[in-house]
Amino acid sequence: MKINLFQVLSTIASAIEASAPELNGHHKRTAFIANELASELDLLPKCREDIFISALLHDIGGLVKKDYFIAIDDQEPYSHAHAAYGASIFKMVPLLKDKASIILNHHQKWKHGFGEGHNDESIPFASHIIYLADRIDIQFLKLRNGGHESPVEQCIEIIRNEVNTRYHPRAVEAFLSLANKTYFWLALSKPFPLHLLKMYSPIAEKTISLDELMDFGRLLNTIIDMHCDFTRRHSSHVGIVSRVLAEHCHYSEVECKKIELAGYLHDIGKLAIPVSLLQKEGKISATDLATLRSHSYYTFEILSSIDAITDIARWAGMHHEKPNGSGYPFGLRGEEIEQQCLIVAVADVFVALTENRPYRRCMPSEKVREILIQEAENGSLDNELVKILLAHREEIMVITDNMGLAHSY
To answer: Which tens digits make up the pLDDT trace of 133-187?
Structure first.
């Protein structure tokens, strides 16, 4: 199974921006700018790939540390805090690990050459390119949205005035050459289409395996769970419980991995929901409930952009569909719902009942069993899958205990 790497990374970039809609498209534009700077500098293909990938995900640490908007204005120590978190996230994935240093230093200023190193370590030139690309996009966006008559000229002037102090002189030299080309500013003057970014991308045709996609899935479930204070391991556990159920339903190893991945990613749409609402205690309004429920559709929408995993997009995005037709977002019923969706649904409810929430402690074993059976009887959960889960709950208990799930079994 081959999965397009560009689609995977651009999907992660979209997930990052789901938490910051005011900067919609920022990562795509930064990746475009950084790539064009690297091209202008005639850097080696591997270096261009590293720059493009790092630029596309450069603010991923902002999802862990809630300082995203502060970092936009390049204020210390916030900008370096989210860069450090981003580097830690990159180290989780073998394909990104060698680029962690680029992310760690992507807010380091040049400071007349002192920015060549930090704490006795050299700073990658790629970091300076991404820093400049990031600032070009932010400055041009501010000027254009602020109604300035000559945003291009003013953006050039601002960058030129900070060469050597803020920006690496070689990177600025490349920018000043690039700034004379009409296409560059036209590309930045409207929403940046994904197909155009792919055309410029040095990784457009690169593919990864299902196992490598699993690495990205684990990265994303960590980010999803950290988005809300009380769901620190929820997606991880839903993924694992989904896999156990899939194994006992006798799916192939490949299918088991895909169902596990659907479990990891089932709540990725929550990145589009305000954290204040996700953590709201007490009674919520009908409007708030509708907003919360929209997360499953956003999961489906985000994951559907990866051609090779549209099945996983369905299984993850439809985890709130119910056999009796009372679910959402599509209101499917009975055989309209694939078993893989029902597996993730049962895993999701089980994990939710057995973990602590702000409004209640984890439920005792007999109460969890009671609720699951009742949900199966009224058609909210699949009856056969609930029986399988309850029959193998000791096995699930051992696995989740080893992962730190706070439950009462």
So the answer is: 999 999 999 998 888 889 999 999 999 999 999 999 999 999 999 999 999 999 9
Distance CA 178, CA 182 (A): 9
pTM to 2 decimal places: 0.90
Give CA–CA dist 232/357, Å, rounded: 11
State both tokens at 108. 């380091």
CA torsion sign for 27, 33, 37, 42 is positive
**Residue-level pLDDT at 232:** 64
φ, ψ of residue 57 in degrees (nearest 5): -120, 20
Whether the CA torsion 198, 201, 204, 208 is positive or negative: it is negative
- Nearest-angstrom CA–CA distance, 62 and 14: 13
| Lowest mean pLDDT across 72-76, 122-126, 321-325, 392-396 | 72-76
Task: Pick the more confident residue, 399 or 310.
Answer: 310
Lookup result for tokens 């895993």: 347
Position 24: which residue type?
Answer: N
Cβ atoms of 342 and 376 closer than 8 Å: no
Task: Output the 3-class SS for the chain.
Answer: CCEEHHHHHHHHHHHHHHCCHHHCCHHHHHHHHHHHHHHHCCCCHHHHHHHHHHHHCCCHHHHCCCCHHHHHCCCCCHHHHHHHHHHHHHCCCCCCHHHHHHHHCCCCCCHHHHHHEECCEECCHHHHHHHHHHHHHHHHHHHHHCCCCCHHHHHHHHHHHCECCCECHHHHHHHHHHCCCHHHHHHHCCCCCHHHHHHHCCCCCCEECHHHHHHHHHHHHHHHHHCCCCCCCHHHHHHHHHHHHHHHCCCCHHHHHHHHHHHHHCCHHHHHCCHHHHCCCCCCCHHHHHHHHCHHHHHHHHHCCCHHHHHHHHHHHCCCCCCCCCCCCCCCCHHHCCHHHHHHHHHHHHHHHCCCECCECCCCHHHHHHHHHHHHHCCCCCHHHHHHHHHCHHHHHHHHHHCCCCCCC
Which two three-digit tokens encode residue 127?
């970091």
Which one is predicted more confidently, 209 or 190? 209
Integer angstrom CA distances of residue 364 from 34, 85, 409: 53, 36, 7
